[in-house]
Structure formats: C-alpha cells, structure tokens
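dumping this here so i dont lose it
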C-alpha cells in the first residue's frame, strides 16, 4: 500500500506538472495502434469484437505488468514506470487546458472554435451557435471527468489493496480506448465495436453515479440542485452513464445543456453563454481536487491499516 500511495502521488504530479507525454511514447497511443491493427484483420461481427476486446485488455494489462516487473533490477525504476503508466490512464491537465482553450476561442473566433471542438465532441460543429458550442464544451468537460479521470482512479483504488491497482486502471483504459475508437453504431463498427461499447458502459456505471456527489460537493450552495437534476435528467442521453455528470453540472450551474436533435438537460435552466465555460471549469477543477483528496485519503488510510496489521503482535 505504501508503493500504491507513492505511485498515485507521482502519477498525479506527472500529469499536473508535465501533462501528456509525446505520442510516440504514450501508452494510450500504443493501445490505439493495437486496436487499429486488430480491427483491420477482424471480421465485422460480434464474435470478432469480443475476441478483439479480450486481446486488447490482456495485452495492455500484461504489457504494463511485465514492464514493471522487468524494471525490478534497478532501484526505484519500477516505481517510476508504474507512475508513468498509471498517469497515462487519466488526463487532468489536458482536459482542463483543451476545454479552456476552446472556451476562449468561442469568444474570439467562432470558426476556429468549430474546428477545435472535434477534439472534445463527436457532433457536427459546422452550424453550432456560440451558446450551443459553449454547451458542447461544458457537456464534454463533465462527461470526460468520469471517463478520463474518475474511472481510472476508481479502479486503481479498488484493486490497490490486492496489489493490482495499476493493472485495473490499464484494463479500464483499454476498454475506454476501444469504445472511443470502435464503439459506434455505424455500419462496419456496430457489431465489432459492440463488446467494447458494452464493457465501457459497465466499467463507467459506478464512477458515473459517484461523480454527481463530487460535483455537488464542489458547489455546496447548489449541491441539492445538482443532485436533483442528475436524478431527473440522467435518462435523457443515449448513454446510460454520461447523463449523470452532465445533468449534475448543468444543475449546479443552473444552465440548459443541449445536443441539438438528441437531448436537452435541465430545460428550465438558462441558455449557456461563453462566460459559463470558465464557471464550469472552476467547478470541475474543484471536483477533480476533491477526487484526488478522497483518493489520497483512502490510500493513506489503507497504508496505515496495512502497517497496523503487519505490526500487530502475534501471541501463541
């Protein structure tokens, strides 16, 4: 547990201070290349999709596990590699920076903002108004808080007491990357991406629901409104998970979020403005800080508990 705590602290420091590593050495990029390689060789059916998912998860987890083990002959190297691999499963600085940059660009140059938005959202951005573009940034910020931050940390904590926190986070990231690459209901992907999409829904199920508590705590004055909005509107989105954090954030900010033609969240709220993007960023920064604080508290408590168990006198 001491090692798990150290890995977590180092990984968080790497992310916040340095951001994302270059693509050529980014583990998630490697996962993506593996998915792309297997996709071109797999048949477009569910059986092939299940096999692809299993291969991607097993290769990702085993590669990370063996990389740490192989570094064991050099002092501290396993710790550094573990932290580097764990950091690759979440992206705090990147999410906040991209959201901030696009939010500022909406005010300065709408055409440029539309060209930047695909980095966050998958919708057609060509006809979006400033209000709709602001909504898209805020929606993506809350949804990616779960997928890109809370979920990998959740699975790291869940299996850290067993010594497999890193492996759990890597498995989640493999699933999440599959969903983002092939988890679509389009022709050619609907069947082969089915397994990855369903695994992603399952993996994010608990973290998505936990997220509304952290979002509510990030703005106590509207915590109740955030929770009520989440429970009222979470079913509005096609995804079984994304509606929870998006509706909670909309309720906390008292704004109306909309993906034209698909869903509306907190329809009684105010139309989002570009000034709401910094408000959303500030609230989500607080939620992320709370997430890290809770995770450190859990790891620290488990570390103290492990010390107590080890040092407990045995009487024969």
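and the seq i came up w/
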């Amino acid at each position: 547990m001491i090692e798990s705590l150290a890995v977590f602290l180092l990984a968080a420091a790497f992310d916040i201070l340095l951001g994302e590593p270059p693509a050529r050495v980014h583990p998630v990029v490697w996962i993506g290349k593996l998915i792309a390689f297997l996709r071109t060789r797999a048949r477009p059916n569910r059986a092939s999709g299940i096999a692809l998912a299993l291969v991607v998860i097993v290769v990702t987890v085993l590669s990370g596990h063996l990389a740490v083990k192989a570094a064991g002959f050099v002092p501290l190297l396993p710790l550094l590699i573990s932290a580097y691999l764990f950091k690759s499963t979440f992206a705090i600085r990147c999410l906040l920076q991209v959201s901030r940059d696009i939010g500022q660009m909406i005010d300065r140059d709408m055409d440029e903002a539309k060209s930047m938005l695909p980095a966050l959202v998958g919708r057609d951005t060509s006809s979006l108004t400033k209000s709709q573009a602001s909504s898209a940034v805020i929606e993506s910020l809350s949804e990616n808080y779960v997928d890109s931050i809370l979920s990998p940390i959740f699975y790291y904590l869940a299996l850290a007491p067993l010594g497999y926190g890193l492996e759990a986070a890597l498995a989640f990231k493999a699933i999440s990357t599959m969903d983002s690459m092939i988890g679509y209901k389009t022709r050619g992907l609907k069947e082969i991406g089915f397994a990855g999409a369903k695994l992603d829904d399952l993996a994010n199920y608990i973290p998505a629901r936990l997220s509304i508590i952290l979002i509510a705590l990030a703005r106590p004055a509207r915590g109740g409104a955030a929770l009520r909005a989440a429970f009222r509107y979470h079913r509005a989105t096609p995804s079984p998970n994304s509606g929870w954090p998006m509706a909670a954030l909309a309720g906390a900010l008292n704004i109306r979020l909309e993906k034209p033609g698909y869903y509306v969240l907190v329809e009684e709220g105010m139309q989002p403005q570009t000034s709401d993007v910094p408000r959303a960023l500030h609230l989500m920064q607080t939620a992320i800080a709370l997430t890290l604080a809770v995770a450190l508290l859990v790891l620290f408590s488990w570390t103290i508990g492990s010390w107590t168990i080890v040092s407990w006198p045995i009487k024969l």
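The mean pLDDT is 93.
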